[in-house]
Design brief:
- The structure holds two protein chains of two kinds.
- Chain A has 15 helices and eleven strands.
- Chain A has helices at 9-17, 23-35, 48-63, 106-113, 161-168, 185-191, 225-235, 279-294, 307-325, 345-356, 359-371, 377-398, 424-428, 435-439, 469-483, and strands at 43-46, 75-79, 117-122, 175-179, 194-197, 217-222, 265-269, 298-302, 404-408, 444-451, 457-464.
- Chain A has an eight-stranded mixed beta sheet, sandwiched between helices.
- In chain A, strand 2, helix 4 (106-113) and strand 3 form a beta-alpha-beta unit.
- In chain A, 62% of the residues are buried.
- Chain B is 33% helix and 4% strand.
- Chain B has a two-stranded antiparallel sheet with strand order 1-2.
- Chain B is flat.
- The relative contact order of chain B is 0.07.
- The chains are: A alpha/beta, B mainly alpha.
- Chains A and B meet through helix 9, helix 10, helix 11, helix 12 and helix 13 of A and helix 1 and helix 2 of B.
């Protein structure tokens, strides 16, 4: 009997459809894995009944000879940023603790309609603000990976750190993530998992707790490019309830996957080669170029001259939008209320928000409020939005010379918990390679490339033209086939 | 540009976040470190650049002018709307006394 928890999305779906095992057997196997992995703290709540109910529906549909959806029988993890009907949704914050939405986010509904079930709500950085999962009110997620010769607990990355840890530890075959400035790609890279942030607007933001609305984009995290393509196809689609949803057909990405890159050109952005770059990261990038040459692609140097300004621009734009979006948490309509004895309405707001938001969230609200305030708006916010235009123009110019861009996903492998959390700025720099594509709204993915000398995963990033997820996935597949990445963390939990 | 302790206290109050002395002690230097770092954006010549308004070109759509076109976002769902309120009374949100 196969160990079902080793299987990915496609293998499970096809196995259920072909009668090798039932959807209920799959759900039970993963429910068991989730229950046995409490030590990783990957889930805020487990929902084994949801997974079983969805599985039973699929088994009944199969028995009745009905057509099965593209995710039929696949139980997944749901990042706790997605509103799920009747299941607590907190964005890993205290202020939303106990919030039970009476509605379902469009993306999660799309997945249930495609036949998926939910194993639970995944831990994350609070309001998706963080790169190590340490800002979660419910405690950090522990990576299943350990460096050779060390017992230090490592970060699974962030903000989708519950998702990356759960997929890497085989607690679920795939999970949803969201990416505002790297929150899918960075955790994937450092846990040896695969994930794609599609073009801004591909996946509806309706029912996703808002962080920075002009950047937030949902995407799948899994263990293969093909599984990502299948799941993204189920998540994406036009949604009239989101005014920035793209009114465009969803291509059959999985069906069209093609790792033959003959006639394609891949750009290597010279500004991503930073002083003092980790030699192992640089070596993996060189290796990536070789793999893509081997797949038939031509490699050219391209220039993205405003790269160094992308991260500081992001840390104005994202906090500005966050300060506005998070104004809704006021202790009146939902979530926490802190009403000190004899306090008036204004004191109630201030006490509720002081108690309900974590330090990083407060820091970003304060920065955002400051850069949007009278007298500073033009110097900070308008200037950042102009730089954002320049970052996007850089990409458009580069794409005149190439079909996709190859870069490292992260500047380092996974770091130990608590190593960086006393220095917010050092933490921000971990997203230096991921943020430019976010500012430009481009599809971008991370694919596992290799292990470091200490046995920790490194990822490579592929960035594509707007709407060209297919090219990104195709390049990702070419890397995946040559990297032959099969390493998995040794079970210690 | 750097921010003073008084400015941070003022911004916190504008953002309706109560902040104690101890919290200000660590928040002020942290913010100044971040603001010093974003200051480098001033080096970029943006005199002939328009600020971005939409990352992917899109036109805003109009929906049909129909009441409750989408039952999920239409009216008549008072119980759902109030279900998560910390205090709900007589079909309304409850708040501390606002008018003396």
């Amino acid at each position: 009997m196969t160990d079902i928890t080793q299987l990915g999305v496609k293998a499970i779906r096809d196995g259920v459809a072909g009668g090798e095992f039932t959807a209920r057997e799959v759900a039970e196997a993963f429910n068991g894995a989730v229950e046995a992995a409490a030590e990783l703290n990957a889930f805020i709540v487990a929902t084994p009944d949801h997974a079983l109910a969805a599985a039973d529906k699929v088994d009944a549909a199969r028995a009745a000879g009905e057509e099965l959806g593209p995710m039929a029988g696949v139980p997944i993890g749901m990042k706790d940023l997605f509103a799920t009907n009747g299941v607590q949704t907190t964005a890993a914050s205290h202020i939303l603790e106990g919030f039970v939405p009476p509605y379902e986010s469009t993306v999660s509904q799309n997945l249930w309609d495609a036949g998926a079930g939910m194993l639970g709500k995944l831990n994350m950085d609070q309001f998706a603000m963080g790169s190590s999962n340490e800002t979660s009110y419910f405690g950090p997620v522990k990576s299943p990976w350990k460096a050779e010769g060390s017992n230090a607990t490592l970060t699974p990355g962030g903000s989708s750190g519950g998702s990356s840890a759960a997929v890497a530890a085989r607690l679920c075959p795939a999970a949803t993530g969201t990416d505002t400035g790297g929150s899918i790609r960075q955790p994937c890279a450092i846990t040896g998992t695969t994930g794609i942030k599609p073009t801004y607007g591909r996946c509806s933001r309706w029912g996703v707790v808002a962080f920075a609305s002009s950047l937030d984009q949902a995407g799948p995290m899994a263990r293969s490019v093909e599984d990502c393509a299948i799941m993204l196809g189920a998540m994406a689609g036009f949604d009239p309830k989101d005014s920035t949803s793209l009114d465009a057909p969803v291509p059959d990405w999985a069906g069209a996957l093609n790792a033959d890159l003959k006639g394609k050109t891949i750009g290597i952005p010279r500004e991503y080669r930073m002083d003092g770059m980790d030699p192992e990261i640089e070596a993996s990038w060189e290796q990536g170029k070789q793999w893509l040459r081997d797949a038939g692609a031509a490699i050219v140097d391209v220039s993205l001259p405003h790269t160094k300004y992308a991260l500081p621009a992001y840390y104005i734009v994202a906090p500005a939008e966050a300060s506005s979006n998070l104004a809704r948490y006021d202790g009146v309509r939902y979530g926490l209320r802190d009403l000190p004895e004899g306090a008036g309405l204004q004191d109630m707001y201030a006490a509720t928000r002081a108690d309900g938001f974590g330090d990083e969230v407060k820091r970003r609200i304060i920065i955002g409020t400051y850069v949007l305030s009278a007298g500073f708006y033009d110097a900070y916010y308008t200037q950042a939005m102009k730089v954002r235009t320049l970052v996007q123009q850089d990409f458009h110019k580069a794409f005149e010379q190439c079909d996709a861009i190859l870069a490292p996903t992260t500047p380092t492998p996974a770091f130990p918990l608590e190593e960086m959390n006393s220095d917010p700025l050092a933490m921000y720099l971990n997203d230096v390679f991921a943020v430019p594509a976010s500012l430009a709204g481009l599809p971008a993915m991370s694919v596992p490339a290799t292990l470091t000398s200490k046995g920790l995963p490194l990822g490579l990033q592929v960035i594509g033209k707007p709407m060209d997820e297919q090219q990104v996935l195709d390049v990702g597949l070419a890397i995946e086939q040559r990297a032959g990445f099969t390493a998995q963390p040794q079970k210690w939990w | 540009m750097s921010v003073t302790r008084e400015q941070v206290a003022k911004i916190a109050s504008l953002a309706r976040i109560r902040m104690g002395e101890q919290e200000l002690d660590h928040m002020v230097p942290e913010l100044n470190k971040i603001l010093d770092w974003v200051e480098q954006l001033g080096e970029v010549d943006t005199s002939s650049v328009e600020p971005m308004t939409a990352v992917i070109p899109q036109a805003l759509r109009l929906r049909d002018d129909v009441v409750d076109a989408d039952p999920k976002t239409g009216g008549g769902r008072r119980e759902d709307v109030l279900a998560n309120a910390p205090v709900a009374e007589h079909g309304f949100y409850g708040v501390p006394k606002v008018i003396e």
